[in-house]
Amino acid sequence: MPWTHAQCPDGQRKTFDECLACRQECFDMEIREALFERERNWQAIEHTGDHISVTALLGCMRGTYLERITDYAAPPESQWWSLRGEFIHRLVERPDMDNPYLRRSEMRLKGKVNGYEVSGQLDNYKQRFLEKGVLKDWKSIGDNGLQYIIFDGAKEDHVWQTNLYAWLGRQNGYRTDRIEIAYLSLMQVVKTGQVVSFVEFLNNPPAKSGKRKHMLGSPRLVKQYASGKKKWECFYRIPEVPIYDDQTVIDFATPRLACLSKAFKAGVMPPVAEDEVRKWKCDGYCRVREVCEAEEKKNGRSLVIPQ
Ligand code: SF4
């Protein structure tokens, strides 16, 4: 029952049809149409009922559960990121092929972990030289977010997500010898395992330490400004995505599957997300925070958001 209403800037709550009929649009009409249509299809196909997908196991499971049982309103603009991600996927999705090498796009797979069924859709999988399997996932990201990938490598959630896909692949006869995650912003493509350039505007050359520990070679001075600031180009190697063995993936997935399964089948409320997730999610990215807070209040607690 997830996103069913548009939250207007003036505080009104409208159905999608009412939103599309509005004459004082707050967000582009055709984009809203596409967003609403996508949401309706999405609800109909995948993320409904007690179906558990790999992505449901990541982030906040209370949020996953509440989004499925609660009708909520959100400003159309706040959902743009999800459409943008799909748009980029469609651009890079290539046809499947079997010859001379195997390649699959949007491959949907299922597996069972300790009696729980889980499914996932791999963006891209191919077997090339010596039948080595390469599993690849594309992520759209804001330009400001890219620096974190460049400095630290793939996000932890994405490492688990792709490892769960690799595990699903193994259950279905597809081996994975390498995982690649390509982060696509409007200005740059940054892929794990690759060398990328990164520009910084500083008075002094950036040093290879702390968050810049993966820097390669020395910074190159590109330009000097009258203000004293200088433009530096540096190169970074984005760390490879580690491949976890079956037991590590099973140990990660089992308690999460048990938690979501109990929630879907018996209505047992999952706990709030762990500190690291609450730090970034509760404030800006959670669409069911009000319901979550009400649940905490009902139990004599308040929702604590670590800083
Ligand atoms: S407010 Fe935070 S803890 Fe609660 S459901 Fe949302 S993300 Fe999870």
What is this entry, summarized?
By secondary structure, this protein is α+β, with helices and mostly antiparallel strands. It contains 9 helices and 11 strands.
What layout of secondary structure does this protein have?
Blueprint: E1 3-7, E2 13-15, H1 16-20, H2 29-45, H3 61-69, E3 72-74, H4 80-92, E4 102-113, E5 116-127, E6 133-140, H5 146-152, H6 156-171, E7 178-184, E8 189-191, E9 195-202, E10 215-224, E11 230-237, H7 246-266, H8 275-284, H9 289-298
Parallel strand pairs: 1-3, 6-7
Antiparallel strand pairs: 1-2, 4-5, 5-6, 7-8, 9-11, 10-11
Which properties best describe this structure?
3-stranded mixed beta sheet; 307 residues; 11 strands; single chain; binds iron/sulfur cluster; globular; 35% helix
- Going by helix content, strand content and strand pairing, the class is alpha+beta
Assembly state (oligomeric)? single chain
Biggest sheet layout:
5 strands, mixed
Span of the ends, CA to CA:
31 Å
Which blocks of ≥5 consecutive residues have pLDDT under 50? none
Q: If strands are numbered along the chain, what order do they take across the biggest sheet?
A: 4-5-6-7-8
